[in-house]
Amino acid sequence: LYAELVSLGAPLGYLDVGGGLALTYDGGGGPWTPDHTAQNYANDVVASVNDMCVQKKVDAPVIVTESGRYLASHHSVLVFEASCGQPSLPPGPEAEIRAAGGAMGYFLDTFEEVYEESAGASDPEEAYADAHQFRAEAQSAFSLGVMTLEELARAEELFDGIMERVSRRAPGVGRLESARTSGAVPCLANLSVFRSAIDAWAVKQTFPLVPISGLAEEPDAHARVYDLTCDSDGEFRSVATSGDAPSSVLPFRRDGSGCLTLGLFLVGAYQRSLGCDHNLLGGT
Question: Quick check: 207 and 265 in contact, CB under 8 A?
Fold first, then answer.
C-alpha cells in the first residue's frame, strides 16, 4: 500500500509498522518467551520494506515502530510490602490434643511417625503419597463423625509439615510440584492485582516476582501471594522464578518477622493504564 501510494504521488516518507514486538517475561524457555529477538524482528521488517521499495522503484521510507510494551516495560519496578502467615509448627508434646485411648489415637500416632520419618526419607514421592493418603482418611473420618475437629486440625498440621519438607527436597516436577503449593504460606500483598498487574489476572501473564528481602539467602519456604482487595481472585497464580518454568508459589527466606518486601518487574506503563482506578487503592 505504501509503495502504491508513493507511486501515485503521495508525499510519504514514513512507514509505521505498528507494534507487536514481544517481551520476555519469564527469563527464557517458558510460555511467555517469544520465538524471536528484537534484532530478528528488525531484520525481517527492514528486509520486507527494502524488497518492496526495490520492486516498486520507490525511495526507502523512515521506518517507525510502536512497540510500546517492549520499550516501556523495563522502565519501572513496583516494590511493595507483604504480610506472610507462619507455616505450621513441627508437632511436639505441647501440641497434644487427643485424649489417651481416643478412637483416632492410633491413627494420629501413625501419622506422626510418617511426619518424623519424612525428615530423612530417601524417597520424597513416598512421603508425598503417604501424607495424601492419611489426609484423605482423616477427612473421611471427620465427615463420618469419628474424628473431632481438633484431631482433624492435627492431621492437617501434620500434612502441611510433610508437604513443607517434601517441597524443600523435591525437584518440583510432576505431582511433587503440588507439594510446594500445599505447603505454601499465604502472603497478603499491599496492592491490587487489578490495578498494578491486571494482565496477571486477565490473560494469566507471568511476571517476574522477586523477594527483595533476603535476596542473597537461600529460600527455605514457599508462599502464595494474594492482594488486599475484596476480589476473591486477586492472586499471582503464576510467577517467574530463577529462570525455571513458571510456578504458582514464590520461594522466599523466612526471617521470623512475618513481613516481606517484594518486587514486581516488567510492569512498565501498561499495567497501571490498563488497571485504571480499580478499587480506588491509589498508586498501587
Answer: yes
